Amino acid sequence: MKVVSLGDLVLDVVVRVEADVARGADTPARITLSPGGQGANVAAWVAALGASSRWIGKRATDAQGRLAAEALERLGVELSGPVEAAGNGVVVSLVDAAGERSMFPDRGIATTLEPDELRPAWLLCDHLHVSGYALLAEPVVRAAVRAIDIARMGGARVSVDLSSWSAIRDAGPDRFRALVESLEPDVVFANEDEDEIFGGPLPRSTWILKRGARGCRFGDEERAALDVPEVVDTTGAGDALAAGWIVGGPDLALEAAARCVGRMGSMP
Q1: Is 22 part of a structural domain of the chain?
Q2: What is the pTM of this model?
Q3: What residue numbers bound the domain in which 209 lies?
Q4: Which of 82, 121, 141, 190 is deepest in the core (most CB within 10 A)?
Q5: pLDDT tens digits for 112-163?
């Protein structure tokens, strides 16, 4: 199975605080650096779960871009897309004692991917997964729409992750819903906040509702989350779940999400 994921590749700085934040002073923390970004996360988990994986996006060869790209390649992902000299994105994730995270993204040049920078050969696949972040900025949204058209011409199924309730709010929920509906995705992934602001399921798409520790609804099927010894970091759990579902359905989706929350960082 060949899966292509379109979205951001960033340097992910995860900060897990180990005490109450001392404003104006020091707070003990565990800090990790790893590749991240929703598109790259899904690609990494697809590769870890045994499918052929390609990531598409715009990245840079600056220090943060090299670190992220080299790490993603080591995970078995093929990287495709234009490369610039500077401006790769960085995301800082602040993780509390319960494993919940707040994200501070600087997307850099990821949003500047143009439709004419795509190559049709990159989109020869069985499944194309599109990060909602790629649908929330210009000009990358036009590149994402073009990618969907090319992949569909080759017979690929298409999924979209809604990505961020706050970004949907800022873009305008009605406008964003109209765009996603016009793309006619086969599958949509959403968490509960995204589901609410988006206005609920699309009529002709399989709707996968991510509910964190309370499990997931796969269409009409409710499934409980798997038990894990400790929730260390929820960063990327939804991306792992999406990759698992694409590669192997609900069982693998829940297994991948449980594996993700038991470790620091968003990738396997």
Answers
A1: no
A2: 0.92
A3: 2-9+37-89+109-261
A4: 190
A5: 999 999 999 999 999 999 999 999 999 999 999 999 999 999 999 999 999 9
